Amino acid sequence: MNKSWLALAALLVAALAQAQPQTIALDVGHYLEKPGATSAFGVTEFSYNQALAEAVSEKLLSAGYTVRLIGDDGQAKDLHRRAAAASGADLLVSLHHDSTQLQFMQSWTVEGAKQMYSEHSKGFSVFVSRDNPQFARSARCATALGQQMQAHGFSVNASHAEKIPGESRDWLDEKAGVYTADFTVISESKVPALLLEAGVIVNRDEAPRLSSATTRAAIGDAILAAAKACLQ
């Protein structure tokens, strides 16, 4: 086979590869029995995560991506299986909403029920694991997401870097809001993976904003833009 035929074959292979829709796995953080944090208004984190996953999925599907939802039924208790379920995807994004350390929490009453809140922190944060076999690509996608979150009007939560028990996370890219952490789903995944804490739901100002369709759509736009930037 001469060089011109080899060149043509390479172009055809590249074109076919580009024609295949890329797959993004969305992991819905936590599950019904252990739903994660509780907002300042008594709403579970899992409910926030589930609603955000729906909004993000809609954005990605409309842009031509294939979406693989993991844990959206609230029954996925095994974190190791969650990581394995992303196998073959081009990117795994684990969706969460944040709380803060107990020492900063205080109580108030919402519709007759005692709830806990804190104004200590707010904003988003992104995490990647150095144990992920595709750490370099994970980091690139995480930085792209942090940049896009800010471009869409969200601020970085710097509280995870505070030198206190339960925090002291290492920055990977402080400007973009990216930390390193060995969370099971992103560290054991064989594909590029990141974890997004979309915002702090124990914050009384941020919780209602994070529950709005407009905010969820904006986060979806940020994830879509980041995916386009890092999955080239």
From TrEMBL:
One Pfam family linked to the record: Amidase_3
Domain of life, source organism: Bacteria
Residue intervals of the MurNAc-LAA domain: 81-228
Catalytic activity: Hydrolyzes the link between N-acetylmuramoyl residues and L-amino acid residues in certain cell-wall glycopeptides
GO cellular component: outer membrane-bounded periplasmic space
GO term, biological process aspect, one: peptidoglycan catabolic process
InterPro entries (UniProt xref): MurNAc-LAA_cat, N-acetylmuramoyl_amidase_3
Keywords, ordered alphabetically: Hydrolase, Signal
Segment forming the signal sequence: 1-19
Entry EC number(s): 3.5.1.28
Official protein name in the record: N-acetylmuramoyl-L-alanine amidase
Species per Swiss-Prot/TrEMBL record: Amantichitinum ursilacus
Organism taxonomic ancestry: Bacteria, Pseudomonadati, Pseudomonadota, Betaproteobacteria, Neisseriales
